[in-house]
TrEMBL record:
InterPro entries: MFS (IPR011701), MFS_trans_sf (IPR036259). Its main location: membrane. One of its GO terms (cellular component) is membrane. The chain crosses the membrane at residues 12-36, 48-68, 80-97, 103-121, 141-160, 180-200, 240-258, 301-321, 333-351, 357-379, 391-411, 423-443. It is found in: Membrane. This is MFS transporter. Keywords: Membrane, Transmembrane, Transmembrane helix, Transport. It is a multi-pass membrane protein. The keyword Transmembrane helix applies.
Length: 451
């Protein structure tokens, strides 16, 4: 059955839940390292604390993809039940996270948060392929990217904004500042409300052949389907996997180490280590409090600057939204050029000042906007639509494996080959994105490239 073309607002409504998902990811990406440092983590241990994020994605996304492929309810739909379950659990975790009393609690909550965000996110990718005809898929993924950009920018600025509105940025040693607590609480409400909006405004289409679907569902087996999907993975998906490897290694490096690297290198405000101060001495406590406030203020500014990559990814998405509504594009070269810009943005961080740091994130935003749309558009043209959830989940392996490698010591080992200063991790991220850009030359499938 041929799928009908959807109007802009129909695509917008079905993608709107990504606003909440990105609130969760942006708060996690922009401020988890800050929470870890506040609770006493040293910089080189932070990537390891982040390992929860990729590991949960590795486990959760293929399973959720498989389950949603094999779900159909006339009342609840196919993908929507997973949106909603993930949203409820993620919102609760976002609310609790900044109240973590010690480091191990924050690390444990990150496992839960990333798992639940992944439960909501994976089916959104499959929903675009479910509902949109081939000629609208680039447009659909680009509109998702537009909403993601809005969410990234707003969420990344929340601690700074609530601080400007009068919520203090000061806190005792080992306590998360109230500005961060309020920001995470706002994120929790936005997450659940935006997912509810998509659930209530979007109707899912039933399987084309319902009897065949029921028969295949009764015969399906996750292990069997997983092995079959791995063995039948198209070559384009494997090539995209290499691009994704370098791309997500770079962004994991940014999320885990940008705050400690930039507060130290760009703002000259490293996180003070409470154990190095005699808190019983009022003079030393005053020195610590001043250094901690300077760090917390710098971390707010790093978060705000980081939010700019959401704005530029939004601009990227807006341009492509209007263009792809009526024209085809060369996905390969758009992705290549965007990744190159992001690589240059990371490298510029080494030379940036507090006033010019935003230019790095402007360039990074173009690569982020492309990463969130072009690989998925190319992939959706290359795989079996009946297995879209499973294949999107498998594709996530190419996202999480580089992050696991990075978290298990890959970042620390490689950036120290450049130099011991933490800012060199951002140079490593730039090199990785440039390698991702060059890898686009491997993509040769015309159906994947043009759309």
């Amino acid at each position: 059955m041929e799928k009908r073309k959807l109007r802009f607002w129909e695509i917008w409504n079905m993608s709107f839940g990504f606003l909440g998902i990105q609130f969760g990811f942006a708060l996690q990406g922009g401020f988890m390292s800050r929470i870890f440092q506040t609770l006493g983590a040293d910089v080189d241990s932070i990537p390891g604390l982040w390992i929860a994020a990729p590991l949960t994605g590795l486990l959760v996304q293929p399973i959720i993809g498989y389950l949603s492929d094999n779900t159909w309810s006339t009342r609840f739909g196919r993908r929507k039940p997973y949106f909603l379950i993930g949203a409820v659990l993620a919102s609760i975790t976002l609310f609790i996270m900044p109240h973590s009393p010690v480091l191990w609690v924050a690390a444990g909550l990150l496992w839960i948060l990333d798992s639940t965000i992944n439960i909501s996110m994976e089916p959104f990718r499959a929903l675009v392929a479910d509902k949109l005809p081939e000629e609208q898929r680039s447009n659909g993924f680009v509109i998702q990217t537009l909403i993601i950009g809005i969410g990234t920018w707003i969420a990344s600025n929340l601690p700074w904004l609530v601080n400007k509105l009068g919520v203090t940025n000061e806190a005792a040693a080992g306590i998360i500042p109230p500005s961060v607590v309020v920001a995470f609480s706002i994120g929790a409400f936005v997450f659940i409300l935006s997912i509810l909006y998509t659930v209530l405004t979007t109707k899912e289409d039933p399987p084309t052949d319902l009897e065949k679907f029921k028969r295949e569902k009764s015969e399906s087996n996750f292990i069997k389907d997983f092995k079959e999907s791995l063995s039948t993975m198209p070559s384009t998906m494997k090539k995209l996997g290499l691009i994704q490897f370098f791309s997500w290694f770079a962004f994991f490096t940014m999320w885990s180490l940008a705050t400690p690297a930039l507060t130290q290198h760009t703002f000259n405000a490293p996180s003070p280590i409470a154990a190095e101060y005699n808190m019983a001495d009022l003079a030393q406590k005053a020195v610590y409090d001043a250094a901690n406030l300077k760090y917390q203020d710098a971390a707010n500014l790093v978060g705000s600057a980081m939010g700019v990559y959401g704005l530029s990814s939004m601009a990227f998405a807006l341009i492509l939204t209007f263009y792809t509504a009526k024209n085809t594009i060369n996905r390969k070269y758009i992705h290549m050029f965007s990744l190159l810009l992001g690589g240059l943005g990371f490298i510029y961080m080494y030379y940036a000042t507090p006033d010019t740091l935003i230019y790095s994130f402007v360039l990074i935003g173009f690569s982020w906007g492309s990463i969130l749309s072009m690989p998925y558009a190319m992939l959706s043209s290359s795989v079996n639509p009946d297995k879209m959830g499973m294949m999107m989940g498998l594709f996530n392996m190419f996202i999480v494996i580089p992050q696991i490698i990075a978290a298990l010591g890959g970042i620390n080992f490689l950036y120290k080959l450049i130099g011991t200063d933490h800012i060199n991790a951002m140079l490593l991220a730039g090199i990785s994105l440039i390698l991702a850009a060059i890898s686009n030359f491997l993509i040769t499938d015309k159906n994947a490239i043009s759309g």
